[in-house]
Design goal:
Blueprint lengths: L7 H19 L3 H17 L3 H13 L8 H5 L15 E4 L12 H15 L1 H6 L7 E5 L6 H12 L3 E4 L1 H4 L6 H15 L3 E4 L16 H16 L6 E5 L7 H5 L3 E4 L5 H12 L4 E2 L3 H7 L5 H17 L5 E2 H20 L1
Parallel strand pairs: 2-5, 2-6, 3-4, 4-5, 7-8
Antiparallel strand pairs: 1-3
Helix pairs in contact: 1-2, 2-3, 9-10, 12-13, 14-15
The structure holds adenosine-5'-triphosphate and magnesium ion.
The site of magnesium ion has 4 residues, from α7.
Amino acid sequence: MQPAAPTAYSHAVNAELLKRLIRSHRRDDEEAFVDAAEQLIVAERRQGHVRIADDLAAALRETARASPKPREQIATVHELPRSKTEGASLLDTGTPARGLDDVVLAPETEARISRFLREFAHRARLAEHGLPPSRKLLFHGPPGNGKTLCAAVVAGELGLPLHYVRFDSLIASYLGETSANLRRVFDHARQRPGVLFFDEVDAIARSRSDRDDVGELKRVVNSFLQLLDGDTSEGPIIAATNHESALDDAIWRRFDDVIWFPMPDDAQLHEYLRRRFRSVRTLGLSVDAAAAQCRGLCLSDVARITTDALKAMVLDGDTALTGALFEAAVTRFQNARSRRRSG
Ligand SMILES: Nc1ncnc2c1ncn2[C@@H]1O[C@H](COP(=O)(O)OP(=O)(O)OP(=O)(O)O)[C@@H](O)[C@H]1O
Ligand SMILES: [Mg+2]
């Protein structure tokens, strides 16, 4: 297969990837770093620099981390709030190197996120006019369409740390301890401005009318509502769920904006794949054809299929992503899914 000749365009792609590599390294965002490195390898191979691509791939393999750990988590671990009785850290804190360019959203979703970012960035000007900026967001929608990712995007766009609440250590076995842990989390957010993120918030905000619910969980919902009401921290608070019907009615009213993350339509699939294919050469594979094969899937599944196809291309030593490689990745995904369903 003939490699593509280096062009001004390919130099620009490599420069962009190198920038991403540096930025993600400086922010210690392992996932973004590996993603940029893999794309760089693909781009080098595509330009016919097979030796360089192989060397880079070997370097990436040799230095692979057993478990990615954000630098901030190490640096500030002693300062993070902990469960008194169980000692576990209640938050993971990191500085995500993510921006709006890293997500493909439905127009309405994107407009709401952008508006939120704008209001927050100009909160001082709004305050001069006695207008409070939106600060609390609730993300909801079917699994795998960017809710968790967008919390990182909001933090990345605002240049704030992301405080990710760890429900595994927050929800305690001792009576009253979960509410005390929640209070510690809100206290920490007040002292250390950042984006406070309650992912899968249904874990602590289940409807209080659930018949099989125990008293302790009802108390936790009440505490959460009170802490949200009384919160005087400065940073955004984001909660996300894909179980909206399980959420207590009172929770919805506590948020300034409720943002829906729908399943992707054809335009979104198209845009997502266009971006993923940007730094590779495709052969017998159009974005339209790939999008048609992904219809009905969430973006998380499409991301997985695309990465799978690109990996197969790199491992086979190919210099182009072919229709056959992509189709094989779709088939592997569907087979795994049907095995999971029947198993
Ligand atoms: N809108 C999107 N734009 C770009 N990539 C996306 C998008 N949605 C999902 N992805 C890809 O799928 C991965 C998983 O998405 P994410 O965890 O944000 O979904 P979620 O909505 O939080 O799902 P869940 O409800 O299961 O928690 C992301 O890390 C990203 O690779
Ligand atoms: Mg999520």
